[in-house]
Amino acid sequence: MTNLFFSLFLLVSPSANAETTEGIVAIINGTIITKSDVSKYKDRLKTGSIVDDLLGSNTDVLLKDEKALLKHMIDEHLVDDEVKKQNLNVTIERVEQEVNSIQSRNNISRDQLQEALKREGTRFSDYQEFIKKRLERQSVIEKAITSKIKISDEDVVAAYEAKNKVDSATSFEFKVAHILFREGKRSDEEQKKKALMVFEKVKNGGNFDALASQYSEDPNFNEGGFLGSFKQGEFLKPLEEELKNLSPNEVGGPVKTKLGYHIIKLLERHIIADPNFEKRKESIRGELYQKAFVKQFQFWLDQKRQEAFIRMN
Length: 313
Known about the structure:
By secondary structure, this protein is α+β, with helices and mostly antiparallel strands. It is about 50% helix and about 15% strand. The strands form 2 sheets. A 4-stranded antiparallel beta sheet has the order 4-3-6-5, with helices on both faces. A 3-stranded antiparallel beta sheet has the order 2-1-7. The longest helix is centred in the C-terminal third of the chain and has 33 residues, at about 275-305.
């Protein structure tokens, strides 16, 4: 059986190394942290024990920097003090629910869980206490921070556009009809003049479909002058630029392209998402959430430090 499910919840018993000589290194609101406490915490990190990761500290950093380790321990005490202040204590029934959930997610029985804990040198009662404390800390963080973080769709779009240096995370699909006056049928001046004449008829209430049937020189003419559906970037650029300025059922032109002069009608326009954006939007949302969480959590901890009595020796 793998130890995967221990990645968040398993607490291994303290090292059997000889305890460091007792001495107070910090006091937080009357709670004492001793050299022995620091040493035991460090031993758990060294032996691969999973210490509660809710505060987001890096294990390698904590092992290398004792000041960072002590700060981390103080922060844990501040969160635990807030649990007591807000009376957010978790019942044994809630702990049991979480244990059952862990068993279910990992498809193991209670006996298998206890056996795995035993092999790691952890008493089941210690494991329950660890889960209890973690759930209590989660409830404080949820109430103070997580519930207040809102990542909007606009935030996600803006982050995608900035990261990928694109103008938009969305594009358009156009359904288009046109009346074409083909290149080479007459002089450019005559072409333009005829196109303007027909355009005026349309603008004055003439039926576009009937005028298309009467005047269009498109060799692949379809009823009503229907040209097709095109995604943004797939169409002739001058026509696409004109379409940006039209509302559905509105007519524009005449527009000159290499094919001739076009009177163009926008039948429909639909917004479509960039497929790359669709694939990545939830991971981007997660990244934005994590950044916001770290920022707000540190701000909250700074406030709690200022409110608390903290003395470090």
